[in-house]
Write the structure tokens for this entry.
Amino acid sequence: MRANRQTRRALTLAATAALLTLTACAPAATASSGGTHAAPGGTGHASNGGPVVDNSATPGWRVVKRFGPDRRPMSGLITAVSADDAWTAWTGSISVVEHWTGGAWHPVTMPPKVAANVWWPVAIGAGPDGEVWLFSGTNPTLAIRHTGGKWVLQRIPRWVLRPATGTISTTTAVFGPHNVWVFSLGAGAYAAHYDGRSWAKMAMPEVADGVSAAAAGDIWALGPGVTFVMHWNGVRWIKVGLPVLPLPSNATVSYSNITAVGPRDAWVMRTISYKSSPPSTAMLHWNGGAWLTTASPADVVGSLVPDGHGGLWADGIDINPGGFWYLYHLARGHWTQFTPPGVFIHSPEELTRIPGTRSVWATGSNFSAKSYYGVILKYGP
């Protein structure tokens, strides 16, 4: 359950372009360093020498599905319930919905009236009982729902999906037919919750800018502030304070990529930006009592997911040299860098964990001389 990939890719690429411009304008000695400022309370990844590069390229990663050819770039969403149950929705000039049943991806057939609303999917979520919700920018007052073995259109209040800067940026978490959450960046300081009968506004300390759910009673969210993150413990939203940093006058701090593993196990990326030099980045790990600081894999991280074995997978890009997205694996305190197979390496992948396993889904894109393709990658069995 991640924020919609079209919006996140646009924002990430825009941020990367800004950082690349900053690097080009910075003094040569600073630009060549890959980041000369150490983050207070921890070091950025560059000062640790960066991730180890694995020359075997992509062990464990493979392309399992391609969509296309299409005349427009294709963008895809995936939600995973288990090793044998996942759903994906893609859009370009065509729209595609498919279901993973453990051995292959299978096309999903919907009634024409329902299928007409699939274009421009912004969020997809699924529960263990076959409950699936697909939210689309085509009509933000309708949700596409799979329940009782059939696909239907279900009306939702106008305040559930709200545009932010002209785009709908949304995250959903589906735990069953009576427990559905929707977080919309353009909404106020609330989450939309469906209890099987009606929708309600659930007040939050801040507007949710990033969300990750480990369980129905364990949801983590970032807001626009820089002093705390938000945690749903099954009863209410509580604030979990972030470390207070002594920053120089030319620096600002921001947080991104909230990633939930459990109630006492969450990750967030911290970026300290400077006016005239590259940023300093670090990963913060919540252990239930304190935030511990470790190196980040890259200057910009697109997505971050648990590996099911105490580590993390990430995709990201460095600003110097910039332009190439890689996959990164954190294990035993060290990051290893991999080249993703079968995708256009100048665009980010999007990672989705497969609950109960050590496997990961990833979506990406590629193109030929005349056509565009959507690509699904998988790590593990």
